[in-house]
Design a protein that fits this description.
With 199 residues, this protein is mostly helical. The chain has two domains: 103 residues, no CATH class; 78 residues, no CATH class. The chain contains six helices and two strands; from the N terminus they run ααββαααα. The chain has a two-stranded antiparallel ribbon with strand order 1-2. α1 packs across α3 and α4 runs parallel beside α6. The longest helix is centred in the last third of the chain and has 32 residues. The mean pLDDT is 76.
């Protein structure tokens, strides 16, 4: 008689699957910094509504694998198994982040490459002018949070640049930002009116 130990196998599968999901989440640093996100684990595509217009997008595959050879099975420790699962999580996290950046680049076309303009507060404002911005409670003073994906250490560099600016230069940046928000609020209001007409 061959014993299958189905309940034990299912329990181990759930445990390792949950561990993998947790590790992928920990290792996707780019995604951690994005608010108002929804994770979909299965399917081939999804639809969403933008200003009353239905948009379809295909889902991207993130996958990884590891092997446990027959001769290893009797001596393989739980620590070694979890180490291999972490390796899969690292691989999947990298695929997800590269896929996200590719989608953002194809959608907005405003990623800054190393050979383009240096990233500073002026180029950030230029990028803001090229994207749609939503607002909370239809309030022009409450724009939705914006997420910035940068190389490690760039956030501190931007803060250093700001700290080294004169008050006059900071004031000009703030004034331009307010002008951009005012323009973006007008665009947002137009989109909302169009969406309500469609609804």
């Amino acid at each position: 008689m061959i014993l299958e130990f189905v309940p034990i196998k299912e329990g181990l599968w759930d445990m390792f699957n949950n561990f993998l999901r947790k590790k992928v989440k920990e290792k996707t640093m780019v995604l951690q910094g994005i608010t108002n996100k929804t994770q979909i684990h299965e399917g081939r595509g999804y639809s969403f509504d933008v200003s009353g217009v239905k948009q379809d997008m295909k889902m991207k595959v993130a996958s990884g694998s590891f092997q446990i050879k027959k001769e290893e099975q009797s001596n393989l420790s739980l620590a070694e198994i979890t180490k291999r699962i972490e390796g899969v999580a690292e691989e999947m996290a990298g695929q997800m982040e590269r896929g996200l950046i590719e989608v953002l680049n194809n959608t907005t076309g405003i990623t800054s490459e190393a050979n383009a303009k240096p990233l500073n507060h002026e180029t950030l404002l230029e990028h803001m002018e090229k994207i749609d911005i939503g607002f909370y409670d239809d309030n022009p003073m409450k724009p939705h949070e914006l997420s910035l994906i940068t190389a490690p250490g760039m956030e501190k560099e931007l803060q250093r640049q700001w700290d080294n600016m004169s008050e006059e230069a900071q004031g000009k940046i703030e004034q331009r930002r307010k002008i951009i928000y005012a323009k973006k609020y007008e665009e947002y209001s137009t989109r909302e009116q169009r969406r309500k007409l469609v609804d």
